[in-house]
Every structure is written in structure tokens, then in C-alpha cells.
Amino acid sequence: MHFIKTALVALLLGVLATAGIAEETERYGKQKVVYHVNYDGGPDSAKYKGAMRNIQNHINAVGAENMEIKVVLHGNGLGLLLNAKQDATMQTTVASLKGQNVDFHVCNNTLRGRQISYSDDLYDVWEEDIVPSGVAELSRLQQMGYTYIKP
User: Fold this and answer.
1) What is the spatial order of strands in the sheet that 130-131 belongs to?
2) Per the structure, how many domains does the chain have?
3) What are residue 120's phi and psi, to 5 degrees?
């Protein structure tokens, strides 16, 4: 009898947890968001880590299947992927977000102006991740209906 009560309680908790997730999904619906990173990450990349946490929390609330997320990096924001080249924790974070369909867009103007090689100096950046201009990309995405967030 105790086993049956325990199983029923576990089943009820599972149903309630699923209902909570479904309620959040219904509350937020589908979203298109662009995160803007153009600042120095500070000591130990604290600001970068905070921005990545914001993105993960956003995904957790809405669901990866309900999100289109772009991260546009330009200026000092490229420090996020420069630092990730040597920081295993940041590598894991970036890889995890990419695994949830988060796209990272890197400004070509910054690459040229600062003589940064995306293939040698940045973590997990490919030619298709490069955009001509970070600020122009932000504008383009907003015109396409993406909500702008600067964490």
C-alpha cells in the first residue's frame, strides 16, 4: 500500500511539473530575440558569464523549441569568444547554447579593425558566423521582428 501511495504522489508531482512547463510555454509563446554584446567582460569574464546565464534562463523559461536566439558580438564583445578559447567553462557554456540553436554572429568590422583571426583567435567561430557589421546586423534582425536585449 505504501508503494502505491508513493507512486501516486510521484505521478501527481510529475503531472504538476509538466503542467507548469506547459503553462510557461503558453504564457511566452514563440520568441525571436537578439542579444547584443559589445562590452568588456570584466574580471574573470563576469559580465560575459552573466549574459550567457541570462540567455540560458530565457531558454529555460520559454523552451528551446520556442526560441530563435541570435547573439551579436562586436567591439569589446568579441572578448567573450577570445576568452573562451582558453576558458573551458566558457567553452562548455557556448557549446551548450549552440546546442540549443543559439547562433553567435561576429562583426567583420571588428575582426578587421582589431586584426583578429576568427579561425585562430576565437572559440568555435566559422565563416558563416561572420556578419559584415554588428550594428547593421542588430538593425536587420530588429526589422525582422527580433526583440532586442542587452544583458
Assistant:
1) 130-131, 102-107, 67-73, 31-37, 147-149
2) 1
3) -100, -35
Distance between CA 12 and CA 88 in Å, rounded? 40
Q: Is 30 helix (H, G, I), strand (E, B) or coil?
A: coil
The residues facing 107 across adjacent strands are 131
Residue 141, C-alpha cell as written in the block = 534582425
Please choose, from the candidates 102, 100, 38, the residue with its C-alpha nearest in 3D space to the C-alpha of residue 69.
Answer: 102
Residues 116, 78: contact at Cβ < 8 Å?
Answer: yes
Distance CA 91, CA 45 (A): 12
Over its length of 151 residues, how does the chain's per-residue pLDDT go in tens digits?
544 444 344 444 444 444 455 556 678 999 999 999 999 998 889 999 999 999 999 999 999 999 999 999 999 999 999 999 999 999 999 999 999 999 999 999 999 999 999 999 999 999 999 999 999 999 999 999 999 999 9
- Assess contact for 110 and 126: CB atoms under 8 A: no
Is position 132 within any domain? yes
Which residue range is the domain that position 100 belongs to? 30-149
CATH number for the domain spanning 135: value is 3.40.1260.10
